[in-house]
Amino acid sequence: MSQFIHVGFGNIVNTDKIIAVVSPESAPVRRLVQRAKEEGTAVDATQGRKTKAVLVMEDNRIILSALLPETIAQRAQNFQTAAAAEREEEEHERE
Q1: How far is CA 59 from CA 14, 32, 42, 56, 82, in A?
Q2: Using CA atoms, how far apart are residues 38 and 36, in angstroms rounded to an integer?
Q3: Which of 10, 21, 30, 78 lies 20 to 30 A from 45 at CA?
Q4: Residues 37, 19, 13, CA angle at the centre, nearest 5°?
Q5: Whole-structure pTM value
Q6: Could you report the per-residue pLDDT of 13-68, keeping only the tens digit for each?
């Protein structure tokens, strides 16, 4: 089952498709962002704010977010923990 996380300003992303969440500060990531913008594979979810995280997706797309990478990672972790607890509860109900 797909899980979605909020990446800022009402934008959500499928956690199953995320490969990495990285800071945009390094030169290789800046080149990746520039190339994605040129190729039309970048999705800007910052609403004009400073990009603080770059989400690298399975389909060679990147998503720019104004949230910190740690915030996005924490949200993804919270969803995984909640999903695991839900599965465990369902297993107990079947027994």
Answers
A1: 12, 14, 11, 9, 26
A2: 5
A3: 78
A4: 70
A5: 0.84
A6: 999 999 999 999 999 999 999 999 999 999 999 999 999 999 999 999 999 999 99
